[in-house]
Amino acid sequence: MKPKYLLTVKGYQHYENQEPDMVELTTEAELTAEGGVLYLRYNETELTGLRGTVTTFEVHPHYVILRRTGQLTSELKFMVGKTHQSLYDMGHGALLVTVRTIEIDDRLTLNGGTLRVSYLISIEGLGNGRIVYALEVRKK
Fold first, then answer.
1. Distance CA 28, CA 43 (A)
2. Which of 1, 90, 91, 96 is least enclosed, having the fewest CB within 10 Å?
3. Distance (Å, whole) CA 88 – CA 105
């Protein structure tokens, strides 16, 4: 059996012409390692508006991939100073999303720890913003 972890995710969003927003979620998560890559998986809830979606943070030595599957399908790649484009598919249409990573602070191990990803985002037709994910993982 894989050890269970408790994950706290704080998501900060600030889009042009809108008030900043913060969402905090604490949930059970699975943390595994394979080939030098850490995989942190959890189920989204109604609080995040993504119920029915599994989110995976794939933490590589020099970059992070945020993958969502289920009700929503997306894959964002974060590499400091680099720009990445992908489709954000909500089941009834896809939007082109462009991210430019500002910071990755990875202090995550199989014993737990933290991961912080900060990036600029441009969503086709919806403006620009800045998003920060701050994750804290600890064994239950």
1. 8
2. 1
3. 24
CATH superfamily of 4-139: Calycin beta-barrel core domain (2.40.128.20)
Signed CA dihedral, 104, 107, 108, 109: sign only = positive
Per-residue model confidence as pLDDT tens digits over 4-56: 899 999 999 998 888 889 989 899 999 999 999 999 999 987 666 667 789 99
Model pTM score? 0.88
pLDDT of 115 higher than 80:
yes
Instruction: Give every CB contact of residue 44 below 8 A, 6+ residues apart in sequence.
Output: 50, 51, 52, 53, 54, 55, 68, 70
Q: Which amino acid is at 123?
A: I
Decide: 127 and 17 in contact? Cβ < 8 Å. yes
